[in-house]
Model the fold of this input.
Amino acid sequence: MNQPPIHEGTPRADLGVGLFVVLLGLATLYAAWAIPESPLYAQVGAKAIPYLVGVILVGLGIGLSVSAARGGWSHGLEEAMAAPPTNWRAIGLLGAGLIVQLALIDWLGFVIAATIQYVLVCAAFGSRRPLRDLFIGIVVTLGAYLAFSRLLGVNIGAGVLEGII
Amino acid sequence: MDSVAGLAMGFANALTPINLGWALLGCFLGTAIGVLPGIGPALTIALLLPVTFKVEATGAFILFCGVFYGAMYGGSTTSILLNTPGESGSIITALEGAKMARNGRAGPALVTAAVGSFVAGTVGTLGISFIGPIVVDLALKLGPAEYFSLMLLCFVTVSAVLGGSALRGLTSLGFGLMLGLVGIDLQTGQPRLTFGIPELLDGVNVVLVAVALFAVGETLHLAWRHVEGGQEVREVGRLWMSRSDWRRSIGPWLRGSLLGFPFGVLPAGGTEMPTMLSYYAEQKMVKPEFRHEFGTTGAIEGVAGPEAANNAAAAGILVPMLTLGLPTSATAAIMLSAFQSYGIQPGPMLFTQQPVLVWTLIASLYIANVMLVVLNLPLVGLWARILKIPTPQLYAGILVFATIGTYGISNSVTDLVLLYGIGIVAMFMRRFDFPTAPVVIGMILGPMAEQALRQALTISQGDWTTFLTRPISASILALAAVALVGPRLWGAFRRPAVA
Done:
């Protein structure tokens, strides 16, 4: 058995999670405060439950932070401790795939945006044959587009390629 | 209406050629998607939801029953041949099943899983048909106060009782409750938590969140720690069980089914606990001459029992979903949102107002169950081939389908930003061991609980003690308190004794 590597930063990472939950709760509280007062009378108004959820989240976030300050919980997670190091190349390519989709879908349409996304995601997971992925990607996205728009009658918007077919 | 008359009507309706066709299509698609590694039943149903856009309600729900049972079955195939369980309920199946496959006994493992699913599905569906109407009779006596208390109980059991940590489970639930608040408040018409974004006025779509959590988050998490190199798919071999295999499987099938079903029915949410219990029970009860197979070469009892428990619990979850409208698993939450998209609200009124729909649905569960056992063993070669799709193409494809399914909801890039954003949150949730099912359940149950709370307080004219003075409501709340605090007290008492 290999000794799992000791991760120095784990309690700090856990603390980050706790603080994120506190922030989420504060954002909820702010949003609850911003809800306009209803002119209608109600036993429980529109603001009550959002306030409650915000308070709960802040409380849980504090609880998680306290737990992190006492050493955190990540060191008890086998999967996280035995995990290989962060694969920045894969995360970067995958992230690029997501951003490309967001940037291009309204402009060039689903088929082109998704095909580029397909090639990038394949590359992220270690595929070394981008041309083959491009070909498969076109077939898959075109198939998905036709299935959704023709077979199911779902509107997937208009784009450069979609206009031609 | 009593169960027998209801079932007769349901079968008469479900056995028409077109409805049989929907069931067959559902079984096929459910297994084909469910067999993909990392895809559990909840995601399978979410991804296949668009298929129902053009189908009328009854056909759509027959399709769903097939998808539901098919996805469960596909998941066990993946666990055995690839050792990658798609959901928590099949982790145990992977434990022994993958060991059997490594020792050249994939065939018997697949057969015992298939027949075990059939036995459990039959027990579970019989349970739904005969216990469902009883629960409905009880449920009709419940008012909004009792419903609110029941929902609180659900919240506690799905987030605080199961899983590694109550704190993390409740945080997941809180995140789900927050997402559920987004949109226009139904009672006052006020926009809530929309942060000025008009696309959020309609609320956040449950399917979007499920796809983000289970597909996008999973893909991101895999890429984060990705190491090159493929996984090995085990050969199926001969699909055949020896006489001894049969003898060894029958007991575990029945015990697993009987153990799993009640766990599903009670809002004790989830299939983890019954599958684990079944595994330990079979390990204890196995004949001494086979005991050494557990954990070494793989024991058939360790596949037959937990697989049956998993399927029976999954069927049991349909009881609170159909009769009370309470989803206690992510899969049930997605099904509930599918009902809602047809303007149908599951609950006791559904049985009285739309008996044809309900009983046709239950009848088609029987039909799907039979279809699957007949279909899947001959087709196992095809499912094994689906497993051989290489990782890059598989995850690229999953992401493309996640995107088109979400974009199809409202053609808005805002939805895609939400999809990927919640996906990133889900990636960190995976890393830091936050359960994802409570997010989906909180999101769909939260608004229902708020409505019940408001109705109860309107009836009681603002008197909050109504939850404690009504006896049924008070007992449910007491149960929820015990579920929340009990395990910790128990642990505190136990610790000195252990040390």
Notes: DSSP finds 21 helices and two strands in chain B. The first helix of chain B runs from residue 3 to 14. Chain B touches chain A through 64 residues (CB under 8 Å). Chain B has a mean pLDDT of 88.
